């Protein structure tokens, strides 16, 4: 990977716009898992210590563009960054109008997806972002698979565009591990997509039909290498997604049209746990159930504990995965934890990440 790195630049006194992925779970107005925020801190600290004027950019959730939505405001994120940095980090709502702060201090820009054109990689929007800074830093590995204005367009238009240490670190680790994967366990909504892709009925379950082809390609690709993507044979279902929902265990062939799959079943949890004990390398992307509710959390608990017990090199990624790792207290027993979810999966599949391709093009003078 040949890209310009933030750590090679002189940032003193410069306006530095850093795209992070601070898309973290929020619950009751507070950050429920700050793993992605903590992962971004070294980059932010580096720029602050070098007396840059630091402007932090991120999305949160999937708001309707062109509208402010209090529920998806980065307010709780600003509070948590400030707490971790030990200095105030004001949240700026109308940041596209212009940004400034003292060297060595930081401002957080309100949810970048409130802006019309962000998701479609609109060029005018990207140009406005580029005009806010002397240096643009792409550090949002978790969003590097999205060609959006703040992750792609701005890289092409900024005066200087470079990769941040988190992005560089993620790519370096994943590149070197790519060829060493033995099993890929998918969970939750992603597993439903794989199940549906193979023709199984998943009732009202959350799944992504447009990814069926990708899922089948991944299964075939794994098989061709003698690897495996194990799928559930039994599941926990309910008619609604609620803390009070009644849970039933079913064979994967018996899911009813009015039911949703909300966890793997006990047989699957045991089978997966057994595989994890004998694996050489484990990639974990996504919890296997709606573990926020305990009646759908047993599968994720079993997987987390089995990975923690395994002697394999274990690699975990995804915002919810990070939250599950925290909930079951296994952080110290996972070998490498990535901040990416979809990006991590696409990279492992061998796809080019648009943000990385744009950075490489800039490094080659494109
Ligand atoms: C994620 O958590 O998947 C990333 O932050 C990207 O968000 P998105 O899937 O809504 O694009
Ligand atoms: Mg995603």
Quick summary of this structure?
This protein has 366 residues and is an alpha/beta fold.
Any key phrases for this structure?
6-stranded parallel sheet; alpha/beta; binds 3-phosphoglyceric acid; 4-stranded parallel sheet; 366 residues
What this model shows, in words?
By secondary structure, this protein is α/β, with parallel strands linked by helices. It has twelve helices and 15 strands. It has helices at 35-49, 75-85, 123-130, 149-157, 165-177, 188-197, 212-224, 266-278, 298-309, 319-327, 342-349, 354-363, and strands spanning 15-19, 26-27, 30-31, 53-57, 91-92, 106-109, 135-138, 160-163, 183-186, 234-238, 248-251, 260-264, 281-285, 313-317, 336-338. The strands form four sheets. It has a six-stranded parallel β-sheet, with helices on both faces. A four-stranded parallel β-sheet has the order 9-13-14-15. The mean pLDDT is 92. Bound molecules: 3-phosphoglyceric acid and magnesium ion (MG). 3-phosphoglyceric acid is lined by residues 21, 23, 62, 142-143, 146, 319, 341-342.
């Amino acid at each position: 990977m040949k890209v310009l790195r933030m750590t090679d630049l002189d940032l003193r006194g410069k306006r530095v716009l850093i795209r992070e992925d601070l898309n973290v779970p929020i619950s009751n107005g507070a950050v429920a898992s700050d793993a992605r925020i903590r992962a971004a801190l070294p980059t932010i600290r580096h720029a602050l210590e070098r007396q840059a004027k630091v402007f932090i950019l991120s999305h949160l959730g999937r708001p309707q563009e062109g509208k402010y939505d209090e529920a998806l405001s980065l307010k709780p994120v600003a509070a948590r960054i400030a707490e971790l940095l030990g200095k105030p980090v004001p949240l700026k709502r109308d940041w596209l109008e212009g940004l400034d702060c003292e060297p060595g201090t930081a401002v957080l820009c309100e949810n970048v997806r409130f802006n019309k054109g962000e998701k479609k990689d609109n060029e005018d929007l990207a140009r406005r972002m580029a005009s806010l800074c002397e240096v643009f830093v792409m550090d949002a590995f978790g969003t590097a698979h999205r060609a959006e204005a703040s992750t792609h367009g701005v890289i092409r238009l900024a005066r200087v565009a470079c990769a941040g240490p988190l992005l560089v670190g993620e790519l370096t680790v994943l590149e070197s591990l790519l060829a060493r994967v033995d099993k890929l366990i998918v969970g939750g909504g992603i597993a439903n997509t794989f199940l549906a892709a193979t023709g199984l009925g998943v009732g009202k379950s959350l799944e992504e039909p447009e990814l069926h082809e990708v899922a089948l390609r991944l299964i075939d690709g794994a098989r061709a290498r003698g690897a495996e993507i194990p799928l559930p044979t039994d599941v926990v279902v309910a008619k609604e997604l609620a803390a009070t929902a009644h849970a039933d265990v079913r064979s994967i062939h018996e899911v009813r049209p009015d039911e949703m799959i909300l966890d793997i079943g006990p047989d699957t949890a045991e089978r997966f746990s057994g595989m994890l004990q004998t694996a050489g390398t484990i990639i974990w992307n996504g919890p296997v159930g709606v573990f926020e509710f305990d009646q759908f959390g047993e599968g994720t608990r079993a997987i987390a504990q089995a990975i923690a017990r395994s002697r394999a090199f274990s690699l975990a990624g995804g915002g919810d995965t990070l939250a599950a790792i925290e909930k079951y207290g296994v952080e110290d027993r996972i070998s490498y934890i990535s901040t990416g979810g979809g990006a991590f999966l696409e990279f492992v599949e061998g796809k080019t990440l648009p943000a990385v391709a744009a950075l490489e093009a800039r490094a080659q003078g494109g």
